[in-house]
Amino acid sequence: MKVLELFAGVGGFRVGLENANKELFQTKWANQWEPSRKSQDAFEVYDYHFPDSQNINISISDITDEDFAKMDADIIVGGFPCQDYSVARTKKNEMGIQGKKGVLFWEIIRATRIIMPKYLILENVDRLLKSPSKQRGRDFAVMLSSFNELGYSVEWRVINAAEYGRSQRRRRVFFFIYRNDTNFAKKIDEQFEKGDTIFEENKYDDYIFYDGLFANQFPIKNTVVKSRRAYYDLDNDVVTISDNFTGKVWNTGIMRHGKYYTIETEPAYQGNSLTLRDILQDEELVDEKYYLNDEEKLEKFKYLRGPKRIERASADGFSYIFSEGGMSPYDDENLPGRTMLTSEGSVNRSTHLIFRNNRYRLLTPIEAERLQDFPENWTAQKKLPNGDIVPVSDRMRMFFMGNALVTEIVKEIGKFISTI
Could you give the domains of the chain? Predict the structure, then answer.
């Protein structure tokens, strides 16, 4: 199966899919572009590891329709940025985009419309399901309607990697999108044609709890949390949805034939999760530069991780109190790691802080790679445009991993696609 990887980063989707079935998943094309940066470090790491594919280092919006038409991909994958997906009509009554945000999702839709792959696997931050704050769920409904218009179904689940055995408490929403004329989709329709009449809101319960991709690879309890259940007919006009949507979107669901069904679920993983201790290197292997010997930095970390109650003023002069609860002085090795951000390794509240042998230290790049289930030293080197192989700075390696995904989650998705 030929794969097109968009927003490729350092290759998380490719690593996961190849770990699932390297013979089946053949990534032929990859696009990675970091706007406003002269150095394209992530692309250069990707190009170093995967010189056999057609790797494209330009903005996705600069890939022409003709270029997309040459890509006969069976699968499109990508972790696209979370932005504002509101739409509006232009004076000519055509669909437009409000402001500069949201452009990148429409590039995925453009690629899908031209290529018409059998499947897509997408990933995003879980707040997408509740954005924007003033019209919760609108952005997601716009996305569902856009795929419905192209003849696709969408299954989604918010997955916390630590709740399925991995070493990081990273919550992301994953999408399995499939064309409605695939054998997989047809089997679902046949199942309902043979079945008894059921209540509309329960129509896809068996799929959501037992038969779907996420039910198989990431099992859930057979209960609806707090009776959070909803189903909706999506308007055929995406602008109308953008203007008027008022529905609910829970952490699990499916959209088929213009209707979506969504429930709130809880994981039912039977195994044990890895902990921070499991991914930490032996201390004798940790370079001295990762230890915090600067008292000023240690005091800064103590302040950042401590409780706060600060009076602040807004831009218009309104006074308010900013409060923040305290967190432990260092990270508990008996728990999975916290969500890693692009600021990992800097003096920041979100940075992991390790306390061993009566000393504080930061994570090493190898430990950051382990948190995301990448091979060790995956980001250590990159290939420059002139072909030279050079080392990557620790700061950029941490940035890459903060932007990446847990590749073992993608591996599980790939294993299900292998079976169908």
Answer: 2-271+407-419 (3.40.50.150), 282-375 (no CATH)
How far is Cα 38 from Cα 385, in angstroms, rounded to an integer?
12
Peptide bond into 336 cis (omega under 30): no
In whole angstroms, give the CA distance from residue 336 to residue 164. Answer: 11
Given the residues 20, 30, 45, 82, the one annotated as active site:
82
Give kind and range of the element (H or E) at residue 240. helix 238-244
Residue 101, pLDDT above cutoff 60 = no
d(CA 76, CA 121): 7
- What is the C-alpha to C-alpha distance for residues 42 and 392, in angstroms, rounded to an integer? 10
Q: In 6-99, where does DSSP find H-type helix?
A: 12-21, 41-49, 65-69
Q: Which of 128, 153, 165, 151 is nearest to 212 (CA)?
A: 153
DSSP category for residue 38: S
Single out the residue of 176, 211, 170 nearest to residue 406, CA to CA.
170
Handedness of CA 88, 91, 94, 98 (dihedral sign): negative
Respond yes or no: is residue 289 known to be catalytic: no
Question: Residues 6 or more apart from 420 whose CB is under 8 A from it?
Answer: 183, 184
Write out pLDDT tens, residues 183-230.
999 999 888 776 555 678 888 999 999 999 999 999 999 999 999 999
pTM for the whole structure = 0.93
Backbone phi, psi, residue 294, to 5°: -90, 115
Classify residue 345 as left (phi > 0), alpha (psi -120 to 50) or beta.
Answer: left
Give the DSSP letter of residue 200.
G
Chain position carrying tokens 């089997």: 187
Q: Cβ of 279: how many Cβ atoms within 10 Å?
A: 22
pLDDT of res. 133:
82
- Strand boundaries in 270-358, DSSP class E: 308-313, 319-324, 354-356
Give CA separation, 37 vs 6, 47, 278, in Å.
18, 17, 35
